[in-house]
Design a protein that fits this description.
CATH architecture of the largest domain: Alpha-Beta Complex
Number of strands: 10
Distance between the termini: 56 Å
Strand content: 15-25%
Shape: globular
Length: 326
């Protein structure tokens, strides 16, 4: 059997950690090790992890030497993987796996050795997410699926929990996750798919919990980072994926969408710190932020909203509620 390293980097994850661990213990596939990396947690995370490790020798608990930033912790955790492992399965502490997750993903990987990134449908909250590859397709060329995500804004990668990776690819990329990207998990998929294929199991194999303390809720959603991160990734990978004409068209569309999404977000929430984040993000990527374009797009969106009275009333209600003392 091909060994799988399941890896959970965790900070203060006691709320869901036991259920996460139980989902690994409940796998129908047996050849795995489970590494829980405790990032200087101040709650019961370490106690819960060590209790399970005492009961099952396949579980190993590693403590970081000191508290690490999020992406640094992810990279540190991947460095603990057994050198004999053929596959790497990241599992976030607030998520869980369905029983056939490892067996189904390993089966696809063994049948198609060229597929270094393997995904599946994911239960996200109460809804099934990921676009999939169709009912018959299991493996596609990596560069082509990377192109299609930019062309059609496909959602095929999901989250780190919904992917299995070939371990040699993980070892070849140091550091694996690039801390310059807030969506480092998506960026590394594009990076890997320049040299490997993408496989997809058309089953719901993982669950990503949605809650107030998750990374999605606390950072990405509040700053509305999807559009800017997609733009920055297109700037990085687009020139190598598309001819000059198609790249220019996609870039124009990405810029148009970016300013519309940002304008709507600021109008809806009035969060100027989100605007500051976006300006800094583009500047860090070497791309100038256009105050004129943002202002013009905001005025256009505000005018369109003014023509819809119900939207105006909802917006005023949200603004009033946000200013009501707790």
């Amino acid at each position: 059997m091909a060994k799988v390293s399941v890896i959970t980097p965790v900070y203060n994850g006691e709320r869901f950690l036991a259920a996460c661990i139980e989902s690994v213990l409940g796998q129908t596939y047996g050849d795995w090790e489970y590494i829980i990396v405790n990032n200087a947690s101040t709650d019961g995370t370490g106690r819960i992890a060590r209790d399970y490790a005492r009961r099952d020798a396949r579980i190993r608990v590693v403590d970081t030497p000191s508290f690490l930033p999020l992406i640094d912790n992810w990279n540190f955790a991947l460095g603990q993987m057994d050198l004999q492992s053929r596959y790497c399965k990241v599992l976030h502490a607030d998520d869980f796996l369905f029983p056939e997750c490892l067996s189904q993903m390993v089966e696809l990987g063994e049948r198609h050795p060229g597929a270094g990134v393997i995904g599946s449908f994911v239960l996200k909250g109460q809804h099934v997410a990921c676009d999939g590859l169709g009912t018959e397709t299991r493996v596609v060329d990596g560069r082509e699926i990377s192109r299609e995500t930019f062309r059609k804004r496909l959602y095929v990668f999901g989250s780190p929990t919904s992917l299995m990776l070939r371990a040699d690819l993980v070892r070849s990329e140091q550091p694996f996750y690039d801390a310059n990207y807030l969506h480092a998990d998506v960026e590394v998929c594009h990076r890997l798919l320049q040299k490997t294929d993408f496989g997809f199991v058309p089953q719901v194999l993982t669950c990503t919990r949605l809650h107030d303390e998750s990374q999605t809720s606390t950072v990405a959603a509040k700053l509305n980072t999807n559009a800017v991160e997609n733009l920055v990734m297109l700037l990085r990978y687009g020139p190598g994926l598309f001819d000059a004409d198609e790249y220019a068209r996609l870039l124009r569309r990405a810029y148009e969408r970016y300013y519309v999404v940002l304008a709507r977000h600021v109008l809806r929430h009035g969060e100027l710190h989100a605007l500051r984040h976006h300006r800094q993000r583009l500047q860090a990527a070497g791309v100038p932020f256009s105050p004129w374009r943002f202002t013009w797009t905001s005025l256009s969106e505000a005018a369109a909203r003014a023509r819809r009275p119900r939207d105006v009333m909802r917006w005023l209600g949200r603004r009033a509620k946000s200013r009501t003392p707790a």
